[in-house]
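Example (one chain per record):
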Amino acid sequence: MLRRVNRPVSTAPGVGMAVVVAVLALAVSLAGCATERTGNGQLPAADDPVAWAGRLCASLQPLGSLRGQLPALDPNNPSVGRATLSTYFTSAEQAADQALTGLAQAGPSPIAGGDVAVAALGGALHRLRDAYHEAKTKIDALDPKDPVGLGTQLPGIFSSLAAASNDADLNTLGANAALNDAVKKAPSCSLTSRSAGAGG
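Predicted structure:
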């Protein structure tokens, strides 16, 4: 009855989050970061490019933590499926919001062009967060007992999420050679070998 629902649920949300992490080329493995902050919530200025890059990795950890957490739906229970998707979209929205907070707290960049790259990345994360919020809103508005409505809405929802996950501005960190080099050297960062199109 929900045959059309099963496939996008098993791929699209995970692909969206995996694309974000892969495009950023950052699979975060925290090894401890400074916690002292200034009065405005930012960390103290970092003169070391590697230390600052490590802060960016830490800020993106919430996105990396969602990898592999794919919602599985029971095709015979649209009510539970709707609730499962709603919970997943909520978690994804919160992860993007936490990443934005981390970026804001990272402080000014000691790398030329770093602040511009982070500003562009922040804009993309805002759009990604909004896309997951919109997806949750649409799912929550559906009749939980209506499998036809769920199957009809999912393609459009996943299309919007895919567009947000493939935002060109998500690649701004990797496009800055000096920043990319600092990321490779930061102890709290590790590069992913997965391609941008890989699933989670």
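Caption: Helices lie at 3-24, 49-59, 61-64, 78-105, 114-140, 147-165, 172-175, 177-185.
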